[in-house]
């Protein structure tokens, strides 16, 4: 495998979901049809598909990346438009929010290398870095 090909999220209201991902998160709308849309969000190919939505109650979520200097402005835009579902308790700047259909999302300024560096510097966290 070479990575994630695309992510598909169900949505009850395609217009509302498309507007959220475009206007709040900055995605580019690339294609649209009656029951769906393709958006580009950085290197992510996101498909929105009209249908029934059953929000999850567990910790499952999608984390979206941003550059550290852009975090505050993007987080402010998201906070003004979306409810939060959790406070940040992890390394790095993160904002945990819901999309209009209740999908759990995270904005994170960091990557796997920075997370592993954090655990190397804080071995008391109980994580073994391989």
Ranges with pLDDT <50 over ≥5 residues?
Answer: none
Mean pLDDT: 95
CATH class of the largest domain, anyone?
Alpha Beta
CATH topology type of the largest domain: 2,3-Dihydroxybiphenyl 1,2-Dioxygenase, domain 1
CATH architecture descriptor name of the largest domain: Roll
Strand order of the largest sheet: 1-4-3-2
Number of strands: 8
The chain-level structural class is alpha/beta
Helix amount: 10-25%
Indicate how many domains the architecture comprises.
2
Number of helices: 3
Based on CA atoms alone, the radius of gyration comes out at 16 Å
Distance between the termini: 21 Å
Largest sheet: 4 strands, mixed
Keywords: Transferase
Domain VOC: 3-110
Organism: Mesobaculum littorinae
GO molecular function: transferase activity
